[in-house]
Design a protein that fits this description.
With about 240 residues, the protein is of the alpha/beta class. Helix content is about 40%, strand content about 10%. It has a single domain, classed as Rossmann fold.
């Protein structure tokens, strides 16, 4: 599909990834897909996530078929196929050759903030739940292939959403529209079936919230997980910024 931008944003959980999806979906020339590899991830790992069976039933457990849809045809008039991905959904059994055919961006967040938010909804957390290690692997693979992806820190983005979105549009030869900065509150048909468990804040939102510094106080295992992930975050943080 000549001229279609297949924009893949690879994030970890408890980031601004869903708000970012809203921004791109609010363009008149875009379609979005919400975590297309989630069903495969749950089916393969056996993890007990909220509405696990519904996610698998509603999604596509075959990663090969998911990839076919991500690279396949889009509706007439669509210029941007926005793909919201979780980096930890990239399990070892998935061949990654197809990722290089997408326009990839890594969206990162301080793991101390991620873990503090994560454990408010989940009883426990492990380093691989956060996705930063997987983002480092993905960054290095793409860089080795000659296409290091842009890295955006959510804190930087929220300090200046418009300029970040303008830069992404310019990189992909797209016209920026102010529609990307605000959207109607409420659910969307494109939201995954897990949305009622995770998207409360986004459903209430009508735009990006201003950046607020946080100083989460972690103890025990959550603190240990954040510490393990901090080196991965620092590695990517050093490679972040507008280009």
């Amino acid at each position: 599909m000549t001229g279609v931008v297949r924009l893949a944003i690879w994030s970890g959980p408890r980031n601004i990834s869903t708000a970012m999806m809203r921004a791109w979906e609010n363009r008149s020339d875009s379609v979005v897909v919400d975590e297309p590899l989630y069903a495969h991830y749950l089916a393969e790992t056996g993890l007990d996530h909220p509405v696990r069976e519904e996610v698998i039933a509603a999604g596509e457990p075959s990663w090969e078929r998911v990839v076919e849809s991500l690279l396949g045809p889009v509706p007439d008039g669509v210029r941007v196929f926005y793909q919201k991905h979780m980096s930890h959904h990239l399990l070892p059994g998935i061949d990654r050759a197809w990722i290089g055919r997408l326009s990839n961006v890594l969206l990162i967040r301080d793991p101390r903030e991620v873990v503090a938010s994560y454990v408010r909804s989940r009883a426990s957390v492990e380093p691989d739940d956060i996705g930063l290690r997987q983002q480092v692997v993905l960054y290095d693979e793409l860089a080795a292939a000659g296409t290091p992806p842009p890295v955006i820190d959510a804190a930087d983005f929220l300090r200046d959403p418009e300029n970040h979105l303008r830069a992404l549009c310019e990189q992909h030869d797209l016209e920026f529209t102010p529609r990307m900065l605000s959207w109607p509150a409420g659910p969307r048909d494109s939201d995954g079936v897990w949305a009622p468990h995770w998207y409360d804040a986004v459903w209430r939102s009508t735009g990006f919230e201003p950046y607020r510094p946080r100083n989460p106080q972690l103890t025990g295992q959550p603190a240990e997980v954040a510490e393990v992930c901090l080196s991965h975050y620092t590695y990517l943080r050093e490679r972040s910024g507008l280009r």
